[in-house]
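Appendix C. Worked example: F-box/kelch-repeat protein SKIP25-like
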Amino acid sequence: MERWDLNKKRESWGWENKAPLKDGRFSREEVVAVGYRGKLCMVNVKGNAVKEGAVYDVELDKWEEMPQGMVAGWNGPAATMDEDAIYVIDEVKGRLSKYDGEKDCWEKVIELEQLKRAEQITAGRGKICAISAKGERIIVVDVRDKPAKFWEVAPPPGMEVVAVHVLPRMISRQH
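Step 2, the predicted output written as structure tokens:
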């Protein structure tokens, strides 16, 4: 594990070594880490398969085992909302779930045919955006509403979506 600290002066920028993983269990395929309450959480296999999870505590610079409920329900692409809530889409069932850290379980938010085969998600401003159907669909779920509302955004004609991000709002100042 390495860290690039942008808070340092520019002339001091560089990679810093941090606590390494104990073994190579996370080297089988691409691993995506999500930030959650000051920690990085990751699993070693995508989708519905037997997997292991690990949690890196940024403040303590140490690795911990992932809670069993968290790893058991991590069955697809994941994203965090403001580092306070983790959402995951079960790409087989099309189920969007939110992790409850107190109960160590995943709670269903909504289940949609359109979320099946979800490949990537991102979260921000109360919404989850998912890419599915090999980049042919963008599904937006407003998780602030109860029950959650959703809609589909069409990609530009003849194009496929490869990534989706929620960018911060830019406020222009009038002088």
